[in-house]
Design a protein that fits this description.
Length: about 525
């Protein structure tokens, strides 16, 4: 009985299935299948994908990071090597959240820098920049207390770590002020601040510059010890390439791209080099060859250096579209050329669904929780110490507003004095005006109320009545003029029973005119 009568598939079909399974198994051995790109990125300490960062305007941009991919596994020392100006400091500042990429993605400790609940920037990381960002008026011990309070450490823990770090980093007495330290001591003090609260991720930008070789080796030994448990990850940049031989992984950065991202011993073996400097040279030559940029100096170097035939997408600049983004173990060192590799469908490789990349909306309490108690306590304590150390400045700050108020009151706050006033009183006769006689009747006698009013003005020292006439020519007088008409006092002599009529009449008959210049 043949195969067709038994209902079995033909022999050629069986051979085809076997060949397909063999090819699939071969591809799986060559290219490690990733269960989930997003999940793999969250499992790394730092994961950077397609990072682009530029400065300047769009017409003439200064590209610092050009499609950079970087992967830092947890619990390792990652040495970032590169020449000055290659983008190391910019990359680190983007990782800690101080700067933002123009495009691309950054994942730090499972979250995006600056997102709610990520802790970045925050106590989960310790960042030591190139510049010394410390308060010069503080002593060494006060500096560690201040930063330890910000990190919500207990006072006993701060004291214990302070004693250890001052002794370990060979720093002077804790009572010495930071501004009185040398440049190297200030950098070691900055390193002590970073190591104080034992963060999950340490980012050190050239921490061993100007450090004694013995102390430099002690620092590296300490970094190796704290990463053995797997709870701490270290990213370190340095000018000393041979130092990074102690790192678990190194990344060679040049021209805004990652040339290689592997273990130091593996790179030396792969490129048949005796030192990391030689590896860096060969990779730089390969990058220049890929970019088709050769000067007379570069041509001589290329002729002298034997370059192994390798395939690295970061070095091949001729066709950038054939290089895809992956979430491999170390950056770009896995080839993902789509023209050679057939895609593996979801049916062939089952994978768990991707976790949600969207952040849940913030609650009302999360919006209101903008100030933490330990941050406020640290800031109040810092300002209090600053005021004690700068008494002269504080006295100036307090006295300056008082002096300003006093000067303002002396210059503007007084009543006007020496005002001249000419009076034309129509109630007086011409003879009384000539004799400058204006009778003042006390009590309820309402005769010559204008004279009583003028007597009140004369008692006021701010005014000076210069003349009192029955008639006055206004255009001949160069001062203010007060004029009373003849019937000024008459409406006020009306009986109180005719109160309304008297008040209405006062508006009509009793008038005075004030003319000012």
């Amino acid at each position: 009985m043949d195969a067709e009568t038994e209902g079995l598939p033909p022999n050629n079909t069986i051979v085809e299935v076997t060949s397909t399974e063999t090819d699939l198994a071969t591809r799986r051995r060559l290219f490690k299948t990733q269960p989930s790109t997003l999940a793999a990125r969250r499992q790394q300490a730092v994961c950077v994908r397609r990072a682009h960062k530029m400065y300047g305007n769009s017409k003439n941009p200064n590209v610092v990071l050009d499609g950079l991919n970087m992967t830092v596994p947890k619990g390792c020392i990652y040495g970032l090597l590169g020449a000055s100006g290659c983008g190391k400091t910019t990359l680190l500042s983007c990782i800690v959240g101080r700067r933002r990429l123009n495009s691309g993605e950054i994942w730090v400790l499972g979250g995006r820098p600056g997102s709610r609940g990520s802790g970045v920037p925050g106590p989960r990381i310790g960042y030591m920049p190139q510049e010394v960002a410390l308060y010069g008026e503080f002593t060494l011990r006060e500096t560690l207390i201040y930063f330890g309070t910000i990190a919500a450490m207990a006072r006993n823990d701060i004291d214990d770590r302070t004693e250890f770090l001052l002794k370990f980093l060979n720093l002077p007495n804790g009572s010495r002020q930071v501004k009185n330290l040398s440049g190297g001591q200030q950098r070691r003090m900055s390193l002590a601040v970073v190591l104080l609260h034992e963060p999950e991720l340490l980012i050190l930008d050239e921490p061993t510059v100007g450090v004694d070789p013995v102390l430099r080796q002690s620092i590296w030994d300490h970094l190796v010890d704290i990463t053995k448990t797997g709870n701490t990850t270290v990213i370190i940049t340095t000018h000393y390439i041979d130092e990074c031989a102690q790192a678990h992984v190194i990344g060679l950065l040049r021209g805004g791209r990652m040339l290689a991202e592997e273990a130091p011993t593996f790179l030396r073996q792969q490129y048949n080099a005796s030192s990391l400097e030689e590896v860096f040279l060969k990779l730089s030559v390969l990058q220049n060859m890929g970019r088709r940029r050769r000067s007379s100096i570069a041509k001589e170097i290329v002729e002298q250096v034997q370059v192994p035939a390798i395939s690295n997408p970061a070095l091949d600049m001729s066709d950038e579209h054939n290089t895809a983004d992956i979430s491999g173990e170390f950056g770009d060192n896995i080839s993902m050329n789509s023209a050679i590799r057939d895609p593996i469908t979801a049916a062939e490789v089952p994978a768990s669904p991707l976790p949600s990349d969207k952040e849940p909306p913030a609650t009302l309490m999360q919006h209101l929780d903008v100030i933490s108690s330990h941050h406020m306590r640290a800031l109040v304590w810092k300002n209090y110490l600053w005021m004690l150390r700068n008494v002269g400045i504080m006295m100036f700050i307090v006295a300056l507003p008082v002096v300003q108020i006093i000067l303002f009151c002396y210059a503007i706050g007084h009543d006007p004095t020496g005002l001249k006033l000419a009076v034309a009183n129509g109630e007086l006769s011409e003879q009384m005006s000539i004799d400058q006689f204006c009778p003042v009747f006390p009590g309820c006698n309402q005769t010559y109320l204008s004279c009583r009013y003028l007597d009140m003005l004369k008692k006021n020292k701010s005014m000076e009545v210069v003349s009192c006439w029955t008639h006055i020519t206004f255009h001949l007088i160069n001062c203010d003029v007060l004029r009373f008409y003849r019937n000024f006092s008459k409406p006020r002599k009306q009986p109180m029973l005719r109160y309304d009529a008297a008040m209405h009449g006062a508006h009509w008959f009793s008038t005075r005119t004030i003319r000012t210049h």
